[in-house]
Prior knowledge:
Elements: H1 4-21, E1 25-30, H2 33-36, H3 38-53, E2 57-62, H4 65-74, E3 81-82, E4 85-86, H5 90-114, E5 119-123, E6 130-134, E7 143-148, H6 151-158, E8 162-166, E9 168-170, E10 176-178, H7 181-192, E11 196-201, E12 219-221, H8 225-231, H9 238-250, E13 255-260, H10 266-271, E14 279-282
Parallel strand pairs: 1-2, 1-11, 2-8, 5-8, 11-13, 12-14
Antiparallel strand pairs: 3-4, 6-7, 9-10, 13-14
Helix pairs in contact: 4-5, 7-9
Amino acid sequence: MMGKQEQAEFLLEAMPYIEKYQNKILVVKYGGNAMTDEGLKQLVMRDMTLLQFVGIKVVLVHGGGPEISQTLKRMGIPSRFVGGLRYTDAETAEVVRMVLAGKVNKGLVHHLGLLGARAVGLSGIDGNMLCCSKEGDELGFVGKIERVDTDLILNCLSAGYLPVISTVGYDEQGNIYNVNADTAASAIAGALKAESLILMTDVRGLLRSCDDSSSLIKKVYVSDIPSLIKEGVISGGMIPKVQCCRDAIRNGVGRVFITDGRVKHSILLELLSDEGLGTMFVKGD
């Protein structure tokens, strides 16, 4: 527990960062353990509320895989995964829309509202936000984002609201798509030209040695990513996550962070302190 002296020192350290981010857009991808642990969820919602209070334009993008799996199980619909992604037939896509855009999304908006934030729940269908095509026939209705319309998000931010966006997409033939939350957050942040994007995960960040938590790489230039993949430093499920970081930077996001959502107040520690917490990705060599 932080003492009063430490709290005062953290606030003083945070001042230049708060000034830097005021009236700038921050996109946060929310998922993993921080979403399923009720205690951590409450802390994340408090952090989001604080960031809005100090004048940062926060956009929260969320998934909800565990909730979808639980609902499918109750309905007697089997879950199947291909290469780590949920196979989504038309029936499953409707369940995804019901769970993500309904239960999960409105639950988060309710949490934020109780803490004093002005939040509004949206999905990728609202305002034709996330127009998709199929990622691949073997995945069914898993969405590859073709176009992001940011008008509704910007209107909400201008009116002082915190948009909470569920990762459900659409196509012009009327189909519904399940969209990976990292991919959606990256595309939305890029389209908004956000100051920063934070991807909350269940790992500390990018580790040089996967078995050594002290081998955290604090800063990565996007030009270094191919060599890190070749060396095996970036491997497995971290590859698509890092590719999302790369795409966001290439599309105009100032910096991208992979941070450990299991750590209390990880977002504040990442954004508003000198040390940071996870791995920061930036443009350049």
